Amino acid sequence: MPDFIPYEHVSMTDEEQMHRAESFYQLCRRRRSIREFSNKPVPRSILETIIRTACTAPSGANKQPWRFVVVTDPELKRKIRLAAEAEEKQSYEHRMPQEWLDDLAVLGTDWHKEFLDVAPALIVMFSIPFTTEGERTRKNYYVKESVGIAAGFLLAAIHNAGLAALTHTPSPMDFLQRILDRPENERAFLLIPVGYAQEGTRVPDIHRKQLDEIVLWR
Fold first, then answer.
1. Domains of the chain
2. Sheet-wide strand order for 187-195
3. Taking a C-beta distance cutoff of 8 angstroms, is the pair 70, 121 a contact?
Protein backbone atom coordinates (compact mmCIF):
# COMPACT_ATOMS: atom_id res chain seq x y z
CA MET A 1 0.00 0.00 0.00
CA PRO A 2 1.28 3.52 -0.75
CA ASP A 3 1.97 5.96 2.06
CA PHE A 4 -0.61 8.69 2.58
CA ILE A 5 -0.33 12.00 4.40
CA PRO A 6 -3.08 14.35 5.64
CA TYR A 7 -4.56 16.68 3.04
CA GLU A 8 -3.91 20.33 3.92
CA HIS A 9 -7.22 22.13 3.49
CA VAL A 10 -7.72 25.85 4.05
CA SER A 11 -11.24 26.56 5.19
CA MET A 12 -12.86 29.76 3.88
CA THR A 13 -16.21 31.44 4.03
CA ASP A 14 -18.23 31.87 0.85
CA GLU A 15 -17.23 35.53 0.83
CA GLU A 16 -13.54 34.72 1.12
CA GLN A 17 -13.80 32.17 -1.69
CA MET A 18 -15.58 34.65 -3.94
CA HIS A 19 -13.03 37.36 -3.19
CA ARG A 20 -10.12 35.10 -4.06
CA ALA A 21 -11.85 33.76 -7.15
CA GLU A 22 -12.66 37.28 -8.38
CA SER A 23 -9.15 38.57 -7.61
CA PHE A 24 -7.53 35.73 -9.54
CA TYR A 25 -9.91 36.23 -12.45
CA GLN A 26 -9.12 39.94 -12.59
CA LEU A 27 -5.42 39.10 -12.60
CA CYS A 28 -5.74 36.51 -15.36
CA ARG A 29 -8.04 38.57 -17.56
CA ARG A 30 -5.22 41.07 -18.01
CA ARG A 31 -2.89 38.40 -19.35
CA ARG A 32 -1.99 38.91 -23.00
CA SER A 33 0.45 37.31 -25.38
CA ILE A 34 3.06 39.81 -26.54
CA ARG A 35 5.70 39.84 -29.26
CA GLU A 36 7.61 42.97 -28.24
CA PHE A 37 10.00 42.25 -25.39
CA SER A 38 12.52 44.34 -23.49
CA ASN A 39 15.96 42.76 -23.21
CA LYS A 40 15.95 43.43 -19.45
CA PRO A 41 17.12 40.19 -17.79
CA VAL A 42 14.84 38.18 -15.52
CA PRO A 43 16.49 36.97 -12.29
CA ARG A 44 17.14 33.24 -12.31
CA SER A 45 15.41 32.86 -8.94
CA ILE A 46 12.15 34.13 -10.46
CA LEU A 47 12.42 31.74 -13.41
CA GLU A 48 13.11 28.85 -11.05
CA THR A 49 10.09 29.71 -8.91
CA ILE A 50 7.63 29.94 -11.80
CA ILE A 51 8.86 26.58 -13.06
CA ARG A 52 8.42 25.10 -9.58
CA THR A 53 4.85 26.35 -9.76
CA ALA A 54 4.33 24.65 -13.13
CA CYS A 55 5.58 21.42 -11.62
CA THR A 56 2.76 21.42 -9.06
CA ALA A 57 0.38 20.54 -11.90
CA PRO A 58 -1.36 17.14 -11.79
CA SER A 59 -0.10 14.44 -14.13
CA GLY A 60 -1.09 10.94 -15.16
CA ALA A 61 -0.03 8.49 -12.41
CA ASN A 62 2.13 11.37 -11.04
CA LYS A 63 4.74 10.62 -13.70
CA GLN A 64 5.44 14.35 -14.22
CA PRO A 65 6.37 13.74 -17.88
CA TRP A 66 7.93 17.12 -18.58
CA ARG A 67 11.28 18.81 -19.01
CA PHE A 68 11.90 22.56 -18.91
CA VAL A 69 14.95 23.88 -20.76
CA VAL A 70 15.66 27.54 -19.98
CA VAL A 71 17.68 29.25 -22.70
CA THR A 72 19.38 32.57 -21.91
CA ASP A 73 22.57 32.22 -23.98
CA PRO A 74 22.37 34.74 -26.88
CA GLU A 75 24.07 32.43 -29.38
CA LEU A 76 21.70 29.57 -28.57
CA LYS A 77 18.68 31.89 -28.77
CA ARG A 78 19.90 33.03 -32.19
CA LYS A 79 20.13 29.44 -33.42
CA ILE A 80 16.60 28.78 -32.21
CA ARG A 81 15.29 31.91 -33.92
CA LEU A 82 16.87 31.05 -37.28
CA ALA A 83 15.55 27.47 -37.16
CA ALA A 84 12.08 28.60 -36.05
CA GLU A 85 11.89 31.23 -38.79
CA ALA A 86 12.87 28.67 -41.42
CA GLU A 87 9.97 26.44 -40.39
CA GLU A 88 7.55 29.35 -40.00
CA LYS A 89 8.44 30.73 -43.46
CA GLN A 90 7.55 27.38 -44.97
CA SER A 91 4.31 27.29 -43.02
CA TYR A 92 3.21 30.81 -43.94
CA GLU A 93 4.17 30.47 -47.60
CA HIS A 94 3.32 26.84 -48.35
CA ARG A 95 1.70 24.82 -45.55
CA MET A 96 -1.08 26.96 -44.09
CA PRO A 97 -4.43 27.10 -45.92
CA GLN A 98 -5.80 30.55 -46.70
CA GLU A 99 -8.42 30.33 -43.96
CA TRP A 100 -5.69 29.90 -41.37
CA LEU A 101 -3.71 32.82 -42.80
CA ASP A 102 -6.83 34.97 -42.70
CA ASP A 103 -7.39 34.15 -39.03
CA LEU A 104 -3.78 35.04 -38.22
CA ALA A 105 -3.91 38.29 -40.20
CA VAL A 106 -6.00 40.02 -37.52
CA LEU A 107 -3.19 39.33 -35.03
CA GLY A 108 -0.55 40.89 -37.26
CA THR A 109 1.80 37.91 -37.21
CA ASP A 110 4.15 36.62 -39.89
CA TRP A 111 7.14 34.29 -40.09
CA HIS A 112 9.60 36.81 -38.60
CA LYS A 113 10.28 35.97 -34.93
CA GLU A 114 12.57 38.70 -33.59
CA PHE A 115 11.28 38.12 -30.08
CA LEU A 116 13.25 34.88 -29.89
CA ASP A 117 16.43 36.98 -29.95
CA VAL A 118 15.20 39.79 -27.73
CA ALA A 119 13.34 38.05 -24.89
CA PRO A 120 15.81 37.44 -22.04
CA ALA A 121 14.71 33.84 -21.55
CA LEU A 122 13.15 31.12 -23.66
CA ILE A 123 11.47 28.31 -21.74
CA VAL A 124 11.20 25.23 -23.92
CA MET A 125 8.79 22.61 -22.61
CA PHE A 126 9.41 19.01 -23.63
CA SER A 127 7.05 16.11 -23.12
CA ILE A 128 8.47 12.73 -22.09
CA PRO A 129 6.33 9.84 -23.39
CA PHE A 130 8.59 7.18 -21.89
CA THR A 131 11.67 6.75 -19.72
CA THR A 132 14.35 4.08 -19.70
CA GLU A 133 15.87 2.41 -16.67
CA GLY A 134 18.69 0.22 -17.86
CA GLU A 135 17.13 -2.05 -20.48
CA ARG A 136 13.61 -1.43 -19.21
CA THR A 137 11.30 1.09 -20.84
CA ARG A 138 8.55 2.61 -18.71
CA LYS A 139 5.59 4.34 -20.32
CA ASN A 140 4.18 7.64 -19.08
CA TYR A 141 0.43 8.25 -19.15
CA TYR A 142 -1.72 11.09 -20.48
CA VAL A 143 1.46 12.86 -21.49
CA LYS A 144 0.02 15.63 -23.68
CA GLU A 145 -2.75 16.34 -21.20
CA SER A 146 -0.29 16.47 -18.29
CA VAL A 147 2.20 18.74 -20.05
CA GLY A 148 -0.64 20.94 -21.31
CA ILE A 149 -1.91 21.46 -17.75
CA ALA A 150 1.63 22.25 -16.56
CA ALA A 151 1.90 24.81 -19.37
CA GLY A 152 -1.24 26.50 -18.09
CA PHE A 153 0.18 26.64 -14.57
CA LEU A 154 3.41 28.07 -15.99
CA LEU A 155 1.66 30.83 -17.93
CA ALA A 156 -0.38 31.81 -14.86
CA ALA A 157 2.78 31.89 -12.73
CA ILE A 158 4.58 34.02 -15.32
CA HIS A 159 1.75 36.54 -15.38
CA ASN A 160 1.41 36.52 -11.59
CA ALA A 161 5.12 37.43 -11.33
CA GLY A 162 4.60 40.53 -13.46
CA LEU A 163 6.26 39.03 -16.52
CA ALA A 164 5.00 38.66 -20.08
CA ALA A 165 5.11 35.64 -22.36
CA LEU A 166 4.10 34.21 -25.70
CA THR A 167 3.10 30.62 -26.48
CA HIS A 168 5.04 29.91 -29.65
CA THR A 169 4.50 26.65 -31.53
CA PRO A 170 6.56 26.54 -34.72
CA SER A 171 5.69 23.38 -36.61
CA PRO A 172 7.44 21.02 -36.77
CA MET A 173 9.54 21.61 -33.65
CA ASP A 174 12.11 18.83 -34.08
CA PHE A 175 14.86 21.45 -34.38
CA LEU A 176 14.52 22.23 -30.67
CA GLN A 177 15.41 18.67 -29.72
CA ARG A 178 18.47 18.88 -31.95
CA ILE A 179 19.69 22.36 -30.98
CA LEU A 180 19.19 21.72 -27.26
CA ASP A 181 20.71 18.24 -27.46
CA ARG A 182 17.79 16.46 -25.87
CA PRO A 183 17.43 12.66 -25.92
CA GLU A 184 15.11 10.76 -28.23
CA ASN A 185 12.41 10.36 -25.57
CA GLU A 186 11.95 14.12 -25.12
CA ARG A 187 9.62 15.82 -27.61
CA ALA A 188 9.37 19.60 -27.97
CA PHE A 189 5.92 20.72 -26.84
CA LEU A 190 5.99 24.50 -26.45
CA LEU A 191 8.43 27.39 -26.85
CA ILE A 192 7.71 30.26 -24.45
CA PRO A 193 9.66 33.54 -24.63
CA VAL A 194 9.55 35.16 -21.18
CA GLY A 195 10.48 38.65 -20.07
CA TYR A 196 9.21 42.18 -19.67
CA ALA A 197 7.06 43.95 -22.23
CA GLN A 198 8.88 46.61 -24.18
CA GLU A 199 7.73 50.11 -23.30
CA GLY A 200 4.89 51.14 -25.60
CA THR A 201 3.95 47.57 -26.51
CA ARG A 202 0.55 47.28 -28.18
CA VAL A 203 -1.57 44.14 -28.53
CA PRO A 204 -4.46 43.25 -30.86
CA ASP A 205 -7.89 44.43 -29.77
CA ILE A 206 -9.38 40.97 -29.31
CA HIS A 207 -12.23 39.85 -27.07
CA ARG A 208 -12.77 36.66 -25.12
CA LYS A 209 -15.97 34.69 -25.48
CA GLN A 210 -18.78 35.35 -23.03
CA LEU A 211 -19.56 32.76 -20.40
CA ASP A 212 -22.86 31.78 -21.99
CA GLU A 213 -21.01 30.96 -25.21
CA ILE A 214 -18.76 28.38 -23.59
CA VAL A 215 -20.59 27.00 -20.52
CA LEU A 216 -23.61 24.73 -20.28
CA TRP A 217 -25.36 24.06 -16.96
CA ARG A 218 -27.16 20.74 -16.60
1. 33-199 (3.40.109.10)
2. 66-71, 121-127, 187-195, 164-165
3. yes
Give 138: exposed, middle or buried? Use CB within 10 Å, 0-12, 13-18, 19+: exposed
Tell me the sheet residues that pair with 75.
Answer: none
Question: Coil, strand or helix: which one is 196?
Answer: coil
At residue 124, the 3 state secondary structure works out as: strand
Helix (H, G, I), strand (E, B) or coil at 168: strand
Q: Which residues contact 111 (CB under 8 A, 6 or more apart)?
A: 85, 88, 89, 91, 92, 93
Contact 72, 183 (CB under 8 A): no
Give the gyration radius of the chain's Cα atoms: 19
171 — pLDDT class (breaks 50, 70, 90): confident
Alpha-carbon distance of 110 to 104, in angstroms, equals 8
H/E stretch holding 68: strand 66-71
CB-CB contact of 68 with 165 (8 Å): no
Hey, is 187 helix, strand or coil? strand
> 0.90 cut: is pTM over it?
yes
Closest by alpha carbon to 170, among 97, 99, 113?
113
Using CA atoms, how far apart are residues 92 and 104, in angstroms rounded to an integer? 10
Q: Which of 72-76, 133-137, 206-210 has the lowest mean pLDDT?
A: 133-137
User: Which amino acid does the sequence have at 128?
Assistant: I
